[in-house]
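in:
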């Protein structure tokens, strides 16, 4: 997704994404890239095109290109501090890596390498949440929540799959290779996430926020909005 955003308004070739995953054996990643492109296209994040026209990646034959979808581009270019009314809570972590200026404020605080990093990160992100809350800034509160939630989901993914990839090159669920350190990191973020979800001011502000129809996306990936461990991740 980052490559497609960086290339906008130009397109990117799936093989370029595959090379970012595995520079030497990039061909083995092509099926994974196409499967991810299909999911992102379905969620309205990207367009899959041939000769400038949108196509279905599942039925397209021949070379395809990937471009940022128009709606995603508009969202990415919005300053949500100036225009909070345009912010969409969405599902899970929707917009976590695109909603500015909050992304730039919070991303440097986000780390999940190990339990120690997670504790430092979760503490800093929760302090940011409190600062936004005390300022009456719901968008900031919700973005801090999304970063903490993303800390949990990413750490859980690596806790179950050392490569960070749930699916193998054939698109099948990869065998699990548990990482206890990442599991402990995930637990740190999960506790902070629960704390935010239990905050009465955050709950009231979220309940009052206008509901909008949004793409089923989390910015980099879709996660279940559950406060319980993901058994299938």
């Amino acid at each position: 997704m980052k490559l497609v955003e960086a290339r906008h308004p130009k397109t990117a070739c799936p093989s370029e994404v595959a090379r970012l995953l595995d520079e030497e054996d990039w061909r083995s990643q092509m099926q994974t890239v196409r499967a991810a492109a299909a999911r992102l296209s379905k969620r309205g994040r990207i367009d899959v095109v041939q000769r400038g026209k949108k196509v279905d990646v599942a039925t397209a034959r021949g070379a395809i290109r990937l471009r940022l979808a128009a709606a995603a581009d508009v969202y990415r270019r919005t300053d949500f501090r100036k225009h909070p009314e345009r912010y969409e809570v969405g599902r899970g972590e929707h917009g976590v890596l695109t909603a500015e200026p909050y992304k730039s404020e919070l991303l440097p605080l986000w780390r999940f390498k190990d339990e120690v990093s997670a504790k430092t990160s979760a503490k800093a992100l929760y302090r940011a949440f409190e600062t936004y809350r005390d300022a009456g800034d719901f968008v900031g509160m919700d973005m801090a929540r999304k970063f903490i939630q993303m800390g949990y989901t990413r750490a859980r993914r690596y806790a179950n799959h050392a490569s960070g990839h749930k699916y193998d090159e054939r698109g099948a669920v990869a065998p699990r290779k548990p990482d206890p350190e990442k599991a402990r990191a995930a637990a740190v973020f999960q506790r902070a996430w629960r704390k935010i979800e239990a905050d009465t001011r955050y709950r009231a502000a979220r309940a009052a926020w206008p509901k909008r129809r949004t793409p089923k996306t989390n910015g980099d990936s879709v996660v279940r909005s559950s406060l319980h461990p993901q058994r299938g991740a």
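note: The mean pLDDT is 83.
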